[in-house]
Amino acid sequence: MSAEATNPEAHPEARPELRRRGRTRLDLRRLGRAALLGPTSRDRLPDAIGHVAEAHRAHHPDADLSILRRAYLLAETSHRGQMRKSGEPYITHPLAVTLILAELGAETTTLTASLLHDTVEDTDVTLDQVRAEFGDEVCFIVDGVTKVEKIDYGAAAEPETFRKMLVATGNDVRVMSIKLADRLHNMRTLGVMRPEKQARIAKVTRDVLIPLAERLGVQALKTELEDLVFAILHPEEYESTRALIAAHAGERDPLPAIADSVRSVLRDAGITAEVQVRPRHFVSVHRIARTRGELRGSDFGRILVLVGENADCYAVLGELHTCFTPVISEFKDFIATPKFNLYQSLHTAVATPEGYVAEVIVRTRQMHRVAEAGVVALGNPYATATPDAAASDATATPDAATDPDEERVDPTRPGWLSRLLDWQQSAPDPDTFWTVLRAELAQDREITVFREDGSATGTISLPAGASCIDAAYAQHGEAAHGCIGARVNGRLTSLSSPLSDGDTVQLLLAQDASSGPAAEWLDHARTPAARIAISRWLESHPDRAMATTSAARAPLSVVGARGGGGNAVADLPDATVRLAGCCTPVPPDAVAGFLVRGGAVTVHRIHCAAVAQMRAVGRTSVAVHWRATADCRVTLLAESFGRPHLLADLTEAIAREGVEVVSATVEPPVEQRVRHTYTLQLPDAAGLPALMRAMRDVPGVYDVRRA
What we know:
Elements: H1 3-6, H2 16-37, H3 47-59, H4 66-79, H5 92-104, H6 108-115, H7 119-122, H8 127-134, H9 136-149, H10 158-171, H11 173-188, H12 195-215, H13 219-233, H14 235-249, H15 255-268, E1 274-279, H16 282-292, E2 301-307, H17 310-323, E3 325-326, E4 332-333, E5 346-351, E6 357-364, H18 365-373, H19 387-392, H20 415-424, H21 430-442, E7 446-453, E8 456-463, H22 468-476, E9 483-488, E10 491-493, E11 504-509, E12 516-517, H23 528-540, H24 542-550, E13 558-559, E14 568-570, E15 577-579, E16 591-595, E17 601-605, H25 609-616, E18 621-622, E19 624-626, E20 632-641, H26 646-656, E21 660-666, E22 673-682, H27 688-696, E23 701-706
Helix pairs in contact: 2-3, 3-5, 4-6, 5-6, 5-11, 6-9, 8-9, 9-10, 9-11, 10-11, 10-20, 10-21, 11-12, 11-13, 12-13, 13-14, 14-16, 20-23, 22-23
EC number: 2.7.6.5
Enzyme class: transferase
InterPro entries: ACT-like_dom_sf, ACT_dom, Beta-grasp_dom_sf, HD/PDEase_dom, HD_domain, NT_sf, RelA_SpoT, TGS
């Protein structure tokens, strides 16, 4: 495999940013030589750390650099004599990682921990030494990175690897910031590895670290990691894309002229703005080429407009849509509704008289910082002082940092990360964790739905394709086991119904705290929290899991924790008796019993279709009879005209009769008519007629009958 085919940096003419990376590589060579010469006098920063200091001061002019000097001296001394596989002194690696973070605007504490991030793992330096010299906060981050570094990256260890990584990220997002910068530098220097090891590291980077970078909002790291992975795993497609970019570089680019027109329009409107042409990176060009076919000159980049205030963004948008021809289908407002990774911008596209279509991104300068650096740009999320003070006080010791085992409240933690942290603790095994983690990270977008619960309102963030089941578990946790239906945008619907961005959902819960989900809920659950909670309940209630599987009539049901063996007795000593969910027999129905796997006896009404099937397959028939007790379980069908609050009114009518709702399903309305299916536990079979009359008396209900 040629160097050009595996290394995007081999073609710096293809993208301006790559020239900067080339300079960075030269800087690292100089850093290596400076490191070999050892530290300088105590009065000034060592030459090797000067590049980091310069980048840091660009974002934090008042930062105290003395702690960076002390951290570098400790790192350089402890790593002295160690070499990387590339032949460079090992100290060049923590320096490079720190430089990456400094360019992104990381605060002093993060940079200090970054310089020291390999010392505890690879040298004689201890955590106690780090704590004594640099304080609890730096020690906390270094410890987190060290735990991540100790993780085995073998294929068999991947599930547990990323479980630990996730926990470390949740305890302090700066741990993952350092890890991502660490992986970026290692990917830049991956050429010294064997091809098979390059491929393995690239795959792990693609499957987990790039999605994590995306979700933490660190776009600058994410895009470069994408290009490096692309070059290793898809060399032919990479080379084709490189050729496209190189060919475009030799042609007239229409975007600078369009950018000049935008500047002129905004200047005439009195709007102060900075207008840039932003070239697309390799993977972005490749994706555009696959979706659009032949590329035009304006497809190789986008126009970025930076302004001072949020209101200026909308003023710019108004001028663009007034003075150019807007492509309305391309408009997206991520300021009013930010993405899950903190990203905010206005996206639009305009057509020029020459026939070019230029994509335009409008954002404030602060939004731009967050868009590029994500959580890295937000400073110390745990500091109680002002951000500027926190940036210059790397030895701050918030109370939450004193206990390394205590999870801290992170105001920058996105909702998706909180969800992952919640369910990873209850994931039953590493393989399940790994499967759902990759599925969660593969979600390319999220939706926001508005929840309605009496007088309370709020929002729920869910992955695209999520259903009412996912919303139920996101809002109610394990209490969602008792969900019996949902109302979406005011209309009753089944729990399997998918939700769309902006939907309003009201989730209806049974009063019976012992109820639980059906096995088929797993077919419609998309979030890890929902799938794991459902799976755990079904594993702990195998009898109810089997009952719901046999009850194929109801597409989504809630199964009560109480069994129906309480009324029927089989003429088989010590046999467990279950009432079939398909026909829900009650006294004094004529019934038949059949022996099923596990030694249980399933009881059906004598006219149930399942009876003939059981006999046809040779199931052993067992005589059964009813106990003297009068309580029973029954399934009723209620036909009604659709109207608001109908399900709630029906459930209330059932509750007034002293009847327990074991399960309930609501089918989607057909011609304004709705069918409800209830499985009910009656304290006395004699009360069934009165119950059915009470249900028929509910306005809108025109028929109630046995299933």
